[in-house]
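Handoff note, outgoing to incoming analyst
You'll be picking up this chain. Sequence as last confirmed:
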Amino acid sequence: MVFRNLILLTLTIFIIACESGNDKGLSTDIVKNNKSALPADKSDKAPVMFFDETIHDFGKVIQGERVLFGFKFINIGGSDLVITRVSSSCGCTIGNYPKQPVAPGKSGIIEVSFDSKNRKGIQSKTVTVLANTVPNSTTLRIKAKVVQPATD
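Most recent structure output, in case you need it:
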């Protein structure tokens, strides 16, 4: 009985605390404005990663095949672009990226490979690129339709 009352009291305090936070009318603009994290004199000089395309469709891929595509980008910003990490939504997808800074006006390629082993049907995977850009992440997408190999 005491334990149940303690849980109810804790839950009530939590609900009241959550509701009272909404009464303050605080703006969430700082969350939406990615440039707020940079000093005013640096935000216009930040690197900008511009991709030729951010979605690639491999079309039909035979199950077991490994395919590769290079997403080409250019730094159209005012300072060196540094990619810190590339992560994928699945272990079947791997991203390889330039480890050296990319100077303004220079380009690079993020290679994305997809291994269709043990996959079938329509596949849609994402690769997230983290860099010192505004915004700091870019999502690349790959698609494929994995089909069974033809049998003789």
